[in-house]
Amino acid sequence: MNKFAPFEASDYLNSEEAIAEYLSVAAEDPNPDIFLAAIADVAKARGMAKLALESGLGRESLYKALRPGSKPRYETIAKILAALDVKMQILPAKPEHQAAAG
């Protein structure tokens, strides 16, 4: 019987581009827990203690905010994203050429 180690996304989040793409895809999911889990994966990859220090949040607060089912405040997510050195970008749901044709 083969045994496999559980998949750990944080093992692959080793570049700014990978992190940005990972968070962007997760943010598109309608389930907010997916985005929180993705932020938690990035936080783990970067180091939770370091992120707590850079975001100004306590480690316990950070874990609590990123727990599935939590409802963190926007300002908490903004602090975490800033500490991760990423930003959110809002784009039209339909690019202009599709909207005109539709």
Topology summary:
Elements lengths: L15 H13 L3 H15 L1 H8 L3 H7 L8 H10 L12 H6 L1
Number of strands: 0
Query: Helix content range of the residues, please?
Result: 55-70%
Mean pLDDT, all residues: 89
The name of the CATH architecture is Orthogonal Bundle
**Can you identify the CATH class?**
Mainly Alpha
* CATH fold type: 434 Repressor (Amino-terminal Domain)
Instruction: Tell me the β content.
Output: under 5%
How large is the count of helical segments?
6
SSE class: mainly alpha
- Write down the secondary-structure element order: HHHHHH
Question: Unreliable stretches, pLDDT < 50, 5 or more residues?
Answer: none
- Integer count of domains: 1
* Rg calc: 16 Å
Q: Kindly, what is the distance between the CA atoms of the first and last residues, rounded to a whole number of angstroms? A: 53 Å
Outline: globular
For the biggest sheet, the summary is: none
Provide structural commentary.
By secondary structure, the protein is mainly α. It has a single domain, classed as Orthogonal Bundle (434 Repressor (Amino-terminal Domain)). 58% of the residues lie in helices and 0% in strands. The chain has six helices and no strands. The chain has helices at 16-28, 32-46, 48-55, 59-65, 74-83, 96-101. Helix 1 (16-28) packs antiparallel against helix 2 (32-46) and helix 3 (48-55) packs across helix 5 (74-83). The chain is globular, with a radius of gyration of 16 Å.
